[in-house]
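Task card 7
Instruction: Convert sequence to structure tokens.
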Amino acid sequence: MYGAERQQLLAQRARRDGRIDVTAAAAEFEVAPETIRRDLAALERQGLVRRVYGGAIPVERLDFEPGVSLRDQTNAGEKERIARAALDRVPSRGTVLFDAGTTTARLAGLLPADRELTVVTNSLPVANQLATRNNYSLHLLGGRIRGTTLATVESWALDVLRGLTIDVGFFGTNGFSAARGCTTPDPAESAVKAAMVRACRKRVLLADHSKYGDDQFSRFAELSEIDVLVTDEGLDEAALDELKQIEAEVVLA
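Output:
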């Protein structure tokens, strides 16, 4: 197969599947991963894809933010392991915050019944899981609800967060990297996330490996503001070397 033919197929796969994985594509086309990386670089120069950690995404997806149900199905095994690993960071008592996100929602569902916690969240799925637990004092931040993420945003949430001090916060993100920090597509959601980061004494980021290098429009935290990063073993050595430069503790689930 000629390189131009392979690149055409890669562009079609990116539009169909929403992402090209370098390792999988190399195995399918029986070429070296470096060959696929060069193909993706060529497609990026043509404006057809944008390269991200481990592969590339079609440019059409840059304006698309998947909904909760679709995101929850993506890398579900990794998210479950990350949530279970993060459970060790939940205190026996005190105040905790759950940011909106599919992995943070999984962690909320794993919380044991014997803890005495005051929980603050802007996530409807998190609130729905914890609302009937009598030993938890649950506080749902108000504001406009974003249908895409089922998170509350804007001034009602921001006004309350300015007056809070929380022991531990658990955060989700659309993208993260050593260079760009933690990012999300929507500025309104980013503003609430940033206020949550400021409100917490300790911050734990839950993010699977596919989000590394997938930098989004709006940054809500530098990685230097994160105390613990819980991710999975899908990160390669280059990414791990970059993360060793930050001060956060890195946990591989």
